[in-house]
Amino acid sequence: MASDARPLAMTMGDPAGVGPELALAAWRDRAVDGSSFFVLAAPAVLVDAARRMGFDAPIIETDPAGSASVFDVGLPVVPLDSVVRADPGRPDVRNAAATIESIRRAVEAVRQGEARAVVTNPLAKSVLYKAGFRFPGHTEYLGELADVWGEPSFPVMMIWSEALAVVPVTIHVALAEAPKALSAELIVKTARVVNRDLRARFGLARPRLAIAALNPHAGEGGAMGQEEITMIAPAIETLRRDGIDAAGPFSADTMFHARARARYDVALTMYHDQGLIPVKTLAFDEGVNVTLGLPFVRTSPDHGVAFDIAGKGLASPASLIAALNLANRLTR
Known about the structure:
The chain is built from 12 helices and 12 strands. By secondary structure, it is an alpha/beta fold. Strands 3-4-2-1-5-12-11-6-7-10-8-9 form a 12-stranded mixed beta sheet, with helices on both faces.
């Protein structure tokens, strides 16, 4: 595949979280194979983070076009217009505008051809909600930003690792609401996006999709729930008629041991924790959040803002580095 020298666009995340120090650690370790990145952030936040971490990391203010040429000298930072008040471990609703601006401008950099992919640092949804943010999370906001490209999008969250890839069909909804939000149509729509992007971006000729049941023991023939009979099994049949290699519904308690994982490429689970508990148990430091169904590549660490350790130099950059490397791989 031809090389593409354009950088990756990294967002700041919540400036009171671990994002700034992770960005610095990723630059310090130079762990991304043959690629550079720039951070959309307040330069002073990165300067302060470098000082706290105790290493000399030149912060170079630049624009996306000039970032690659200075990457070996220092961390390229594209300044934000919004004011940032960063106090590690102390979330501030006044930083919401800067957090959102960072995401919006990273997507715009990709749309303008100035960057290859978006890599997002963690944000605190509760902080954004207090500022009037109307989206459940990153995934849904990115879907709206993608609409300006003139391409209809249906964003799908996949947590990917070498050990396991998982897609929750329902995502950021209360557990009690997940069965109500579930439908055969949603399962089919999600699985079609997963199949398409695993083929187009991950290079799998015929992705194998394992579909989880909702109820224990896959409903036990209807004794413990009807969703497998009325909703999940019909969705799988529709997918098979489409030529998609989909199997299930499988009882979730037997889907994630090593022999089971060898039989599929991605597991589609019916609710958030059903899939994220096993993948985070198997690959907490290496897991990457990948948004499928967009006209651009977006990856993110598979962890949160970690306000409790922000500014202490304790956060591992492994998941952010994995996100950078996957974004690099998917756009090479």
